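ENTRY TYPE: paired fold submission
RECORD: A
CONTENT: sequence, then structure tokens
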Amino acid sequence: MHRVIGSFGIGSLEVTQLSDAAFERDLRIFFDGVDEAAWTAELGIARPEDPVPYGYSGFLVQGDGQTTLIDTGMGARAREPGVESCAELPERLRDAGVASDEVDVLLHSHLHLDHCGWDVTGEGAVAFPSARVYVHEAELDFWMTPHPRAPERDVRFADAHVRPLLDAGLVRPVRGDARVTESITMIETPGHTPGHCVQLVQSDGEALILVGDAMHHPAHIAHLDWHSIYDEDREMAREARRRICELAIETNALLTGPHFPILTLGRIRRDGSGYRFEPVDAPAVRG
């Protein structure tokens, strides 16, 4: 059994990770070109095909006067055998006590199909009609124009799932690093995609970084040059991971991501000239 929802505290905020799928899979595509013996040893598995816990998820942030949702998983689709909480992010949101029309802010790390799927309902209607939607302008340009390098499957998906939000006037493009709520700053980290952003969540002197797809596994922290096949610009992706690590050290932030199993939290520590991930228990929610 995999956890499909879990909450923790950051200062006066409550952060809840909401699963849209929890399962085990072969992770070799996230270590493209890396010696198999090196990355399998790092993950503690014997063979590249050995399954490793993985998931699609979003994050709910509450406690600063806004109800903020960060990424929306894969969206409506057929249920898959062996996958827990498959296509159930809306149910997990309800489990957290939030109705879709109570979401005030929707943020996107980027617009790959496993991060914007529930922007619309299974019928294609805008899922969060009261939300202000923040996406980096370079991300919108890449997928919605679209750019010649943008994969056709993802372009079609973005058109079906993000275009309705644009048509409804809900999208507010950001550039650079942008503070979008009292507690959350979008940090520009291009590389995986041209407009990829991570989210820096801060409250009462505490901090959290949600890494999007800059890191698909904590192993990417110790090995900045281990790449997913989906990293659009590998040099920029490596630099993005370095920037995230430095920011995490500077702010003493907890770190997790939408593909990390619920709840996988840690801090970044220096390790010689590089970095390492130090797992920590989830901080309790205050009150």
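RECORD: B
CONTENT: sequence, then structure tokens
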Amino acid sequence: MGLLAALGTAAENPAGYDRGDYEHSSGELCDTSGTDPYTGLTFTAATCDVDHIVAAKEAHESGGHRWDRATRGRFGDDRLNLVASRDCVNRSKGSSDLAEWSGVQSGTCAGARLTAAGRCFWAARTVAVKYRYSLAVDTAERAELANALNQCPADIDATAPSRAAVTTAPTTETPSSTTATSNCHPAYDPCLPNLPGDALNCGDLTAAQKPVRVKQIGVDPYRLDRDRNGWGCTS
């Protein structure tokens, strides 16, 4: 519980969020089969996603909104915060924190639950990542993290990671827009940021961007339309 006590408490701030600022280049984590750390489900290279343990949007709202783009990029590619996960689990988890997600509600893995071991893993790594980047937790997240860690091995968060170099953005910086027409992905309506691969999840989208129309069924790089009916992020 030592690292959790070192984290500040603050309400989330979504100002200026752009998923593209937090991209990773660690796709090789999905080169082999494995076991999802949250649910215990198995995955193959074809059903694997690289998951940000502390989601990019969660990090942004917890302090990353003050960072410059270089710091956001370092966070996005930090291996402390990356893990191979079952694709449907990663998409269900989305941008949630431990207080907001406990299992898959719909889709391919519907009914898969966050296991006790998964809760311990997620809680311990969340605290470590937020400590490294001096990110805050909100009141509900702090309570849920404390509850989870109290049920985990006593030394699970005993080792403090090194602090990351964090640079704040100049106050004159204009946040990047996620709806700039020039950066819209051509496969979707409304405008979604045009990112490489399958980097965008439903949890990264605002309520105004859902549901997403897939303009041509089968051309769905982000894999948002799981039942291939032309609409994604419907639940």
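NOTES ON RECORD B: Helices lie at 2-5, 56-61, 69-76, 87-93, 116-132, 139-150. The mean pLDDT is 88.
STATUS: closed
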